[in-house]
Amino acid sequence: MKTLKFKTNINCGGCVSKVTPFLNKQEGVESWEVDTANPDKILTIESDGVTEEDVKATLQKVGFKAESVD
Amino acid sequence: METINIFETKKKNHKQGVKESFPVTGMTCASCAASVESVLKHTEGVFDASVNFANSSVLVEYDKELSPNQLQNALREVGYDIIIDAEDPSEVQQELQQKHYQDIKNRTIWSAILTLPIFVLGMFYMQWEPGKWISLVLAFPILFWFGRSFFINAFKQAKHGKANMDTLVALSTGIAFLFSVFNTFFPEFWLSRGIEPHVYYEAATVIITFISLGKLLEEKAKSNTSSAIKKLMGLQPKTLKIIENGEEKEIPISSVQVGQTILVRPGEKIPVDGEVSKGSSYVDESMITGEPVPVQKSQGEKVFAGTVNQKGSFQFTAEKVGGETLLSQIIKMVQQAQGSKAPVQKLVDKIAGIFVPVVLGISIVTFIVWMSLGGDNAFSQALLTSVAVLVIACPCALGLATPTAIMVGIGKGAENNILIKDAESLELGHKVNAVILDKTGTITEGKPLVTDIFWKDKLEDINEYKKVLLAIEAQSEHPLAEAVVNHLKDENIEKAEIASFESITGKGVKAQTENGSPYYVGNHKLMLEKNIQIDASLMQTAESLEEQAKTVIFFGNEKQVLAILAIADKIKETSKMAIATLQERGIEVYMLTGDNNKTASAVAKQVGITTNYQGEVMPSDKAAFVEKLQAEGKIVAMVGDGINDSHALAQANVSIAMGKGSDIAMDVAKMTLITSDLQSIPKALELSKRTVLGIRQNLFWAFIYNLIGIPIAAGVLYPVNGFLLDPMIAGMAMAFSSVSVVLNSLRLKRVKL
């Protein structure tokens, strides 16, 4: 188990509803959440094998951006 | 390297891109806008996408090979949507029809241009040898290029062992041409036998030209494909507002689900079928019932897609969406009805189907007889006369018989304010034995008017009360109030001053004048509730008016009823007479209306329809009634003015719309009465009878020519006086026959309907 964090442009509840079906069916994701109160809209993923590249690719399919938080 | 290639390919495709703007739904913030852009840009075939979040639209530049549906699918996968105008198949059909008309027109014009010199050569320079060669060269493209469809169709018919008008044309012109070519190349064949070789180039080409002209007239008389379907679809809004978790949200109509709460604002169309859950308003339901007065809708009552909200706002729960709404059902049924009618086989094709084998038979018999009795030149004479029989079987007049009569018939209709869009209606009209009439807007004016005001006996200061009544009604939003206002305005009455105004749902209104006196305008319930006394004679009058299907409005102060007003949709002056005329001709007349049975009964009696009427009839029931009569073997004419009539109009054998009715009814119907005067109906049916008579007379002229010409061509006069058919005489006879047909058609113009 590994925790991944990303800065995103998942801005509001509407945006969360857009990415929900895609993250939910992403393999290797144990759980995830977006902190829309945070200006950087931090996406936190409990990884069970999913990589940062996988997450970025999935979000891109939905039209959203993700950058790793270091 | 790969990158460069992709760039080049993309740049090349860029020149063939389509730029289009679509409304977008599902965006809730600027990030969604970026999301939409990103999804589209990553869709194969999309060159660029730019979202305008402020007005919820996206400008997309994409490969022309890509369809908007693919863009829509890409966005839907992510939870957004764009709204696409579905292409109407009717439009495509309309374009094809227009192109077809243009083709025929070009062919006809070119045939005429090339035929003219051939005709001149044939009639005046028969002995000039080069004339034959010139005619040959000119005739070839006329027959085999501009007239190629005749030969193609004839070949198709022959493969099925059948014959029609095209067979007759192909046979006649083909034989004439081949015979003429032979005579041009090998004149010595005949000269050596002491026979003058004739050519029939002008006969062949004149036939092609005239038949093409006939087809052109026929095509012009055909109905333009109806755009009614598109207009019906336009009744449905493309987006709607739902209320979800207390928030307003706009979504495309295709996304709405049963059970969702929908908000409707003043002036908006109801997007789907449902039940009112909050608020109330008047809704114009004429699309469904045909009745012009908006109906009040309150909690628990049904509303339907396509109907129009008036001045209030309300919310309703979606119950039927998409293809299940009543409006969608009407659209489907109109489409089915329009497409399901079998084309009436042309009379002329029936005749040609018999005529061709007869002519072929005569030709063969002619050949045999000449071979048996001919003597020295038997074969030559046999061949010559049998060919002449085939050539002389002139289809010209046959081809012109119908279209010329119909052309004149349509013109005659226009003179009498009857627009005829479809030639078939003109041919069918004379067979009509049942006419179905809508009530509102067809038999009646379609507009509520005050017909009577009865004031209480011995009432003083009636004029003062009129001022109060006018002031109250001018402020009311009840649909019938306008009728009262219009009526009182004619008396040049000034409004009294109203200090307060209150609407009482379902009953009427209460108002106070500046001096504090209260007044009420409304229905009987309101008077009872407020304990307002009604004079016995006024009450009697009110009951009598209601028996006449009039709406009764009461006007009173807090003590007593001062007046009652009767409002009704007046029957047009000519309706009764028109119906009587139709009935005298043995035509059954029916009245169907979406209005209540009581009103239906009252109106039917007033116009002389004793039993054949029904009230509370929905649009599909009207069409079902048409089908029922048709199943009984009747030829049915449907007359209507509203959207609610469109299905029945599409189903009817002959459809007639009121000129002052809805565009959709006029689009579906094949005839339109411009003045909306029902007296035009018997005129239209009479015009049909005259036109069909004209067609039959034309066919007589066509046949009389063949009846005389064919035996002469066969050589029956030869034993008598040695006369054989001469091409010049053949051409003149042909022209005479066609002129007779045209002149006879023109006689129709002087007929009084």
Briefly characterize the structure.
Chain A is an alpha+beta fold. Helix content of chain A is 33%, strand content 33%.
Description:
With 70 residues, chain A is an alpha+beta fold. Chain A is 33% helix and 33% strand. Chain A has helices at 13-24, 52-62; strands spanning 2-8, 29-35, 42-47, 66-68. In chain A, β2 and β3 (42-47) form a beta hairpin. In chain A, α1 crosses α2. The radius of gyration of chain A is 11 Å and the shape is globular. The two termini of chain A are 18 Å apart. The relative contact order of chain A is 0.33. By secondary structure, chain B is α+β, with helices and mostly antiparallel strands. Chain B contains 29 helices and 26 strands. In chain B, α18 crosses α19. Chain B is elongated and about 120 Å long. Mean pLDDT of chain B is 84; it is low at 1-15. Classes of the chains: A alpha+beta (70), B alpha+beta (753). The A-B interface holds A 9-15, 17-18, 21-22, 60-65 and B 26-32, 34-39, 42, 78-80.
Provide the descriptors you would attach to this structure in a database record:
heterodimer, A: 70 residues, alpha+beta, 2 helices, globular, B: 753 residues, seven-stranded mixed sheet, six-stranded antiparallel sheet, 26 strands, 52% helix
Number of helices of chain A: 2
Measured between the Cα atoms of the first and last residue of chain A, the distance is 18 Å
Oligomer: heterodimer
Give the helix tally of chain B: 29
Structural class of chain B: alpha+beta
Q: What proportion of the residues of chain B form beta strands (DSSP E)? A: 15-25%
Number of strands of chain B: 26
Question: Helical amount among residues of chain B, as a percent range?
Answer: 40-55%
Distance between the termini of chain B: 82 Å
Range of helix content of chain A: 25-40%
Mean of all residue-level pLDDT scores of chain B: 84
Structural class of chain A: alpha+beta
List the helices and strands of chain A in order: EHEEHE
Averaged pLDDT of chain A, please? 87
- Strand fraction band of chain A? 25-35%
Organism (chain A): Aequorivita flava
Protein name (chain A): Heavy-metal-associated domain-containing protein
Pfam family, one (chain A): HMA
InterPro entries (chain A): HMA_dom, HMA_dom_sf
